[in-house]
Amino acid sequence: xxxxxxxxxxxxxxxxxxxxxxxxxxxxxxxxxxxxxxxxxxxxxxxxxxxxxxxxxxxxxxxxxxxxxxxxxxxxxxxxxxxxxxxxxxxxxxxxxxxxxxxxxxxxxxxxxxxxxxxxxxxxxxxxxxxxxxxxxxxxxxxxxxxxxxxxxxxxxxxxxxxxxxxxxxxxxxxxxxxxxxxxxxxxxxxxxxxxxxxxxxxxxxxxxxxxxxxxxxxxxxxxx
Length: 225
Prior knowledge:
CATH superfamily of the largest domain: Jelly Rolls
CATH topology of the largest domain: Jelly Rolls
Helix content: 40-55%
Structural class: alpha+beta
């Protein structure tokens, strides 16, 4: 169920490049124009009727060279981890909810997050509850480090037979942080080991995927802080 503090809004995007992440799901539905989006290295175009679910902690870059307008839902409901492509009928609802936001219709705004989730997810019969397959985080950590700094969140998710959104939710529940934060901390811990073994700062930065020794040092300082 959507959380009480889920928030709907209509946002206009322009040619200025933006980049950020957040600790909640962000759901976007295109209303007008085309929004260019890159989530954890995966590119996507959001035109009218297209939708995208950005998992918690996933850094995303965005721009709309000719301008774009989207309905945006900031949600803490973990039900969005099950979402893939939206149903075809979602655009009609999104347009109504956008009007409700513009007109400040309180009831529509309050019920909108639940309605959007219901419209987005396909109707499926209830299945018997099955226990979740355990994630061997130690084994996944070894695999990620063996793959080098180019290992992506999508590859981590595929390794444990989950979607990126599902892995993000599991990482939040079981590790207390986003997938990207877990991966970053893992690489910084390995970097400390290499430095203790006598590897130079420059070589450690290269192996860890940082563009320079100063970038690695700054990341380590932020982690200690």
